[in-house]
Amino acid sequence: MLGFKKKALNTVVGTVRASFNGFAVGGKKTKGVLTAGACKNCDCSDGYLRAGAGAREYIPSSLESVILAANMPEPDRFFFLAKKESGGGYAEKLGYISTAGTVYVYDESAASWANVYSFGKRMRPLTAIDTDGNASNLFIGEKGLYTCSYEGDMASTGVTAASRAACFFKGRLYYVKEPFTLVYSAPYSATEFTADIDDGGNVRFPSEDGKIVALLPFKEKLYLFYEYGIAELTPAGTAREFVFRKVGYGGGRIFGDSVGACEAGGEKAFFLAEDGVYAFDGTSTKKACKNLRITPVRGGQVCNHAVFEGKYFVVYPSTDGEKKGLIVDAESGEGYFAFAPEGVSDHRGLAFCSFGLRVRVLSKDGALPSGEERVFSAGGIDFDTRGVKTLKRLLLTGGGSVRVAVSDGKNTQSFESAFENGSMELKASLKGESFSIKLALEKDAEVRSVTAEAQTLGGIK
Q: Order of strands, edge to edge, in the sheet holding 412-418?
């Protein structure tokens, strides 16, 4: 009898790997880069995945936390009341102003807050230093210009109409009297506005770009931010002589309270507009955070910003109904969504905020509010191979502690581990065509790479 030899169907196991040596948020996926569909409080600006910034408690000279009472209104801006001491230094008292213009000053010795004044409107706190080194504590805005003593006594300067678009530039106080008038004080005399060729005065700079919403001293020049444009002012001769130059800008309406300069990254300014965040170098503007969907509320925008440790931080209400925080790395222009505390503001070198009824200072190694996580989630890991695969192992490099969750769409395995000698190995057993991974970083943690290994079924042998 003639016969023949049958071919046996053998199960052959092959190993496939997906290696990622970079991390990104949003945008087009790139080979070798793990791209998150959702990310919060994680910084990928340099290609690695790092724990995002938080805030540490502000501890004054009394060495005790500064606590906000539960019945106090939420802070809008923090400030210091300053007074020159006989030895040449400055005594300082912490204070804050609410969005309704109520001013509170903190007494360290009594560990309590005093309500010293109520403007009924948002106001901007400023500190001026004269030629003798004496400090003047100022509040400026729609209610006018006021001085405030170290003891908290408020007094009008006689200026009854101003705006929060104000700054100090080359020893003078400048502020905008809506919509186009730029008012300036005498040199090193922030409350003297008598019109004179070399003292105080005002100049009009009308524009079709809307009213002036912010002033920014930047790179030895003064910049006017209109609602839809930017102009550069260069002093030329007497106080009232300027060289005026428009700067190219074609973006959405600019929110004045978001404009701020950051010395890191080659000295750049940033601002929030209706269509996203822009970087400004004094010559041109460039869209930042292009991979993020930034949609601020268009009307009645109330936002806050601060600059700290090479980062620009802006908090704003979003069209999705949430208040959002956004942190931008000044050097790269890349950013990430972050927690959204109250009172985000910088004053005399410190970037303040508050949450959990504590006054805090923004910091790369700070804590997050209760309920917030540093989390990075990415899906679509299919090993560039069709069909069902069995995920067997994850290899990570980095530092610190990380919680890892992997899913095949139906089942999830979770791990919590710390890197040892820069490495972490996790054993998994999940079956699927594609997998997702969620990384939750503890403070100071970073992930430099992720490699996933899976087994596949072969064909006939």
A: 38-40, 374-381, 435-441, 401-407, 412-418
Please state which of the four CATH numbers 3.40.50.620, 1.10.10.10, 3.30.413.10, 2.60.120.260 is assigned to the domain occupying 13-52+374-457. 2.60.120.260
Any idea what the Cα angle at residue 395 is, between residues 393 and 396, rounded to 5°?
Answer: 145
- Range of lowest pLDDT (154-158, 195-199, 274-278): 195-199
Pairing label, strands 135-141, 144-148: antiparallel
pTM for the model: 0.92
CA 191 vs. chain centroid, Å, equals: 32
Query: Count of CB atoms within 10 A of residue 264's CB?
Result: 15
Given CATH 2.60.260.20, say whether it is the number of domain 68-300. no
Is the alpha carbon torsion for 35, 40, 44, 50 positive or negative?
negative
φ, ψ of residue 53 in degrees (nearest 5): -70, 160
Q: Record the tokens describing residue 198, joined without a space.
A: 């070399």
Q: Output the pLDDT for position 238.
A: 62
Q: Does residue 206 carry a pLDDT above 80?
A: yes
Q: What is the pLDDT of residue 178?
A: 83
Could you give the percent of the chain with pLDDT greater than 70? 94
Is beta strand 33-36 parallel, antiparallel or unpaired with respect to 401-407? Answer: unpaired
At 251-295, the pLDDT tens digits run 999 999 999 999 765 689 999 999 999 999 999 999 999 989 999
What does the alpha-carbon distance between residue 140 and residue 147 come to, in Å, rounded to a whole number? 9
- Kindly write down the DSSP assignment for every residue of 145-211, as one continuous string: EEEE-TT--EEE-S-----S-EEEETTEEEEEETTTEEEEPBTTBTT---B-TTSBEEEE---TT--
